[in-house]
Every structure is written in structure tokens, then in C-alpha cells.
Structure of 3-dehydroquinate dehydratase:
Amino acid sequence: MSSSTVRTVSIGDVTIGGGIPAVIVPVLGASVAELQEEVAGLGRHRADVVEWRVDHFATLTDTPAVVATAHELSRLLSATPLLVTCRTSAEGGAAELEPGAYRDLLAALAASGAVDLLDVEYLRGDVAGAVVETAHRHAVPVIASNHDFTATPPAHEIVARLCAMQDLGADVAKMAVMPRNLADVLALLDATRVMSEEHARVPIVTMAMGPLGAVSRIAGHLFGSAATFAAAGTASAPGQLDVDDVRTVLEILERAGARPVPDDAAPAPHSAAHVPDAGA
Ligand SMILES: O=C1C[C@@](O)(C(=O)O)C[C@@H](O)[C@@H]1O
């Protein structure tokens, strides 16, 4: 499948997919006051989307408080879309929730009317499919995600997982890995390229974490990644770069004419990331 058939996801003025990467900036406050302060500090940076990492919220199990805070963030952010992510400890986050509690929290957020995009970990038991369904009932697009904080799976496995996420009905498929060497970084980038050239029906977002993976955060879009996460203060994952630095590099690449691979570019025939039977 060619990248020209990939659907984009539009929220207000922001489009995820289609070439220029969306810059997503996380906020991680433990209280409403901390979050308000973080959002106030975002003013001078350019965030296309703001991600609330709700797993760092001190009263995560108080659903009405979480929903009220989502409304407050949405109000403060005005036209900037709000992505809400509850990252569980299984995937490097702070939330210790049973699958049912995880599902119910995400369902309440989807129904709240305050959330523009919702992250769901596609490996969270049988829960991910139900969350996608609930979110779509409320017209909230879903980013399915998967994180490997210790290693980088082989490129064909990264492609297979991204395919599984889009098969689940996700609107965006996201994969973060931890590289142990440069070959791992190349595996992530090659998987991104093969996924976007051959299989993607939805925008994909990929990154290699840690210092070794920095190149994936500033040039991942050239391989097919539709967004990059960047920090305005506290990073939400190892290796996240400063948002203004990322903007500067993106502008330099844009001025140089560096663009994602054209639709008619021939895919490399012997790529390690090739998955013959991945659901395309
Ligand atoms: O999934 C991701 C990507 C991320 O882990 C990163 O490596 O930038 C940061 C998280 O906040 C976000 O939910």
C-alpha cells in the first residue's frame, strides 16, 4: 500500500499525517495547580497538541476529579488539541491500574467532551478494543500505543505491532522502543519506512528513546512518522528533546527541502522490516 492512501487525522487546525510532523508536548503535573502552571508556561512554545500524562496525577482513581481536570485543561488550551494518555507501569508510566479500572477511566475521559485524542495501550488485555469502540462512539480519535523500555524488537515485529494497532481500529498507531545500539535505531526507522510505504492505512508515530534515538525525534517524519513528542520543561520519556530545539531542526530540514519519501518511490526490495503477510 502506498503512503498516499493513509488517512490523516484532523483536530481543528492540526493534522496528524500528511508530511509535516505534529509536535506534541506533554504536561505531567500531579495536581490541578501544577498543571495550570505547566500550561501557562507553554504559551511561548509552539505545541501542536498537548498531551496530559494523567498517570502522574495524584488522584488518578478519583474519576470525577480527572474528568474535571480534563475540562480545565481543555479550557486553558483553548484551540490547542488535548491528548490524554494514561501510561501504565507495564509500559514505563506511573499508573498501577487493573485492566477494568484502566478501561473505565479511559471510557469516562472519552465521554467527557473535554478530550480531543485518547491514547490506549493496545496490549492492555481485552480492554483496548473496548476503549476504541467507546471513544469512537463519542467521536474521539484513538492513538494505540506500545512501548518497549528495555530493547528494540526486530523491524518486522515493529511493523507487525503497528499493523495490529490499525487492525484494532485505532486512528493512529504509535510505537516507542529503546535502542541499545545504532542498528536498533536503524531498525526502528526502517520499520517506520516500510510500515508507511507498504501497510499503513492510518498515520503512524514512532520513536527510539534515549540519547541514541534522538535522530528519530527530529527526522522520523522523513521515514513516515507523523508526530514527535518534545518537552517544554519535564520530559515524559528518556531522550525527549526540547520543543524549541525540535522546531528549529524541523525548520532547517524543511528549508533544505527534506520531505517524506514520495508516494511513487520504489520500496527497498530486501528490507529486514518486510512483513509479507502483515495486514495491509
Ligand atoms: O507514547 C508516547 C511517546 C513517549 O514515550 C516518547 O518517547 O516521547 C512520551 C509519552 O508521553 C507518549 O505518550
In short: The chain has one domain: 3-254. The radius of gyration is 18 Å.
